[in-house]
Design a protein that fits this description.
globular, four-stranded mixed β-sheet, 549 residues, 64% helix
Length: 549
């Protein structure tokens, strides 16, 4: 059943709709009385959802495995219960039987495999969503890793993308995330990047690029690649031993300092993310290995993003502005990076940035009273939601790489100070790109940074900064809130109609699959009624939007 396209789409979409409804209903129900007990119940809900997602992903495999791997690394924002449910998803992808893998291998090599390798371990050393790795030996004695693509995975991934497109459409219509991100462009970017991952020749070129890039970097190693044996569905590389970067028992056994290792990783990936060129877009724990001597091994370059020269310049200006506390420069960089639309209120956004950086620098978020922290963060969140801020699609995988990487850092060293660790690299870039400003630019930045630990603002003044709004802004908020009541009512009717349409389609698909004519006619009738009701609410919503404008 899991290889049937309609079955996969129905399962993925219905699961997403169920999760959407559960979260939205829970948050609306407890919005005004959120406390520790409610938060515990919400985490229990997330745990049940994560458990259901894992079961579904292990059953369907394909794209859901990769999405689950991403969620399992979000230690910076995801609750521990959610991470605990998904953290072993990387290691639990079922392997393909050897006979099927051997068939793919011999088709790509156009000859029996034993004419190419002296021996091969039929049990895979690792199994992932796209392919699995077998350890082998060449006739000359070289130990190699052979990555073989899973049979039929390309068709499965393309089917899953159809389901994801439906889910993104639902998110765009009925969640706040869809209003802050160009999901259609994000979907296109996902198909391009993951489509490249299905072509091992592209991964080969990426691996050769990073091998050359880090060949002179101490403490970092990239496997060598065998171009003559690599094809579109088979990739051959050097076999390198190592443990996962988050294997804390391994780090303790070999006396590898976790804080120093975290600093080394920051140096490696910050150089990738802020310099012009390619960056590893999938740095989850399974793709970063550590050897007993502390050498970091980077593997699996199937998902790789790229930062062009112009954007790299703006990113450095953004980081420089944060370091030297020049928030006007930060706003300019965000605007040039296409995060801010022309109608954004830059004064309000500047207040948000200033409050966040000041509280982070002084570590006030851990020292303040929980209630005060909650009030500050809620106000920041409210202001950001009211502003036309977007996530450009070309930065979607850059943001994904950063969040995945930060999740690893939280596991290695939960108390790491990213500003302090990243300071040397940032100062180096400032010196290299500020020649026209004089050689003292870096020293000036260092001086300003060192002064940032001074007592900046008292707690009452910080709260006042976050809550002090211009009169015009308050009046605008009051007007929007007044119209929002009417809009909420219209949207609720619109959502109900759409949910009935989706439910009817799901049952229609199931009825068609099992040839249940009565259920098929009933679901068809429900769909027609829901469709015309949806059109009616759609017209009402459009009239209301004109009134709001």
């Amino acid at each position: 059943m899991k290889n049937i396209s309609l079955y996969r789409i129905v399962i993925i979409v219905s699961m997403a709709v169920k999760f959407f409804i559960q979260v939205v209903y829970f948050q609306k129900r407890h919005k005004r009385n959120w406390n520790r007990q409610v938060n515990d119940r919400f985490e229990a809900l997330l745990k049940r959802q994560a458990s259901e997602y894992k079961r579904t992903a292990l059953h369907l495999e394909g794209l859901l495995i990769k999405l689950g791997q991403f969620l399992s690394t979000r230690a910076d924002i995801m609750p521990p219960v959610f991470i605990h449910e998904l953290e072993d998803l990387i290691d639990r992808v079922p392997s393909v039987p050897w006979l099927e893998a051997k068939e793919t291998l011999e088709e790509e090599w156009n000859s029996p495999y034993d004419q190419v390798v002296a021996e091969i371990n039929e049990q895979p050393a690792a199994s992932a969503s796209i392919g699995q790795v077998h350890r082998a030996q060449l006739p000359n004695g070289d130990m190699i890793a052979i990555k073989i693509q899973r049979p039929g995975i390309e068709r499965i991934i393309l089917t899953d993308f159809k389901a994801v497109k439906i889910v993104m459409w639902l998110a765009n219509r009925f969640t706040s995330f869809g209003k802050q991100t160009d999901l259609s462009s994000l979907y296109h970017e996902m198909t391009v990047v993951i489509g490249q991952e299905l072509n091992f020749r592209k991964e080969l070129q990426n691996g050769l690029y990073f091998k050359k890039r880090y060949q002179s970097t101490p403490g970092v190693d990239i496997p060598a690649y065998y171009e003559d044996y690599s094809t579109k569905r088979v990739l051959v590389m050097e076999w390198i031993e190592g443990a996962r970067i988050t294997d804390l028992n391994f780090l303790s056994k070999h006396k590898i300092d976790r804080h120093d290792l975290a600093k080394q990783l920051v140096s490696i990936f910050l150089e990738q993310l802020l310099q012009e060129g390619k960056f590893h877009a999938d740095p989850h724990p399974g793709n970063i290995l550590i050897q007993p001597n502390g050498t970091v091994i980077l593997i699996d370059f199937g998902m790789v993003g790229e930062v062009n020269r112009e954007d790299a310049t703006y990113i450095r200006q953004l980081v420089e502005g944060i370091i030297v506390e020049n928030y006007d420069q930060v706003l300019i960089a965000l605007e040039r990076l296409r995060f801010l639309l022309p109608s954004a209120d830059k004064n309000q956004i500047k207040k948000v940035i200033t409050t966040l950086i000041h509280t982070y620098t002084e570590q006030d978020l851990t020292a303040m009273d929980d209630y005060v922290v909650q009030q500050i963060l809620e106000d920041i969140q409210r202001i950001v939601k009211k502003q036309p801020i977007q996530l450009p699609s070309e930065f979607a995988f850059l943001g994904r790489a950063v969040s995945t990487f930060v999740g690893i850092l939280h596991i290695l060293d939960p108390h790491i100070d990213l500003l302090e660790v990243g300071k040397p690299l940032v100062l180096k870039w400032i010196n290299e790109n500020s020649a026209e400003k004089g050689k003292s630019a870096g020293k000036q930045a260092l001086q300003v940074f060192n002064q940032s630990i001074r007592p900046l603002l008292s707690l009452p003044r910080q709260i006042q900064q976050a809550l002090d709004e211009p009169r015009q802004y308050r009046e605008w908020i009051e007007t929007k809130d007044r119209l929002a009541l009417e809009q909420t009512y219209v949207l609720s009717k619109k959502r109900d109609a759409f949910y009935f349409m989706i439910i009817s389609l799901i049952f229609g698909g199931i009825a068609s699959l099992f040839e249940q004519s009565i259920l098929l006619y009933g679901s068809g009738t429900l769909f027609i009624i829901s469709f015309f009701y949806y059109l009616s609410t759609l017209r009402s919503h459009r009239r209301l939007l004109k009134k709001i404008r």
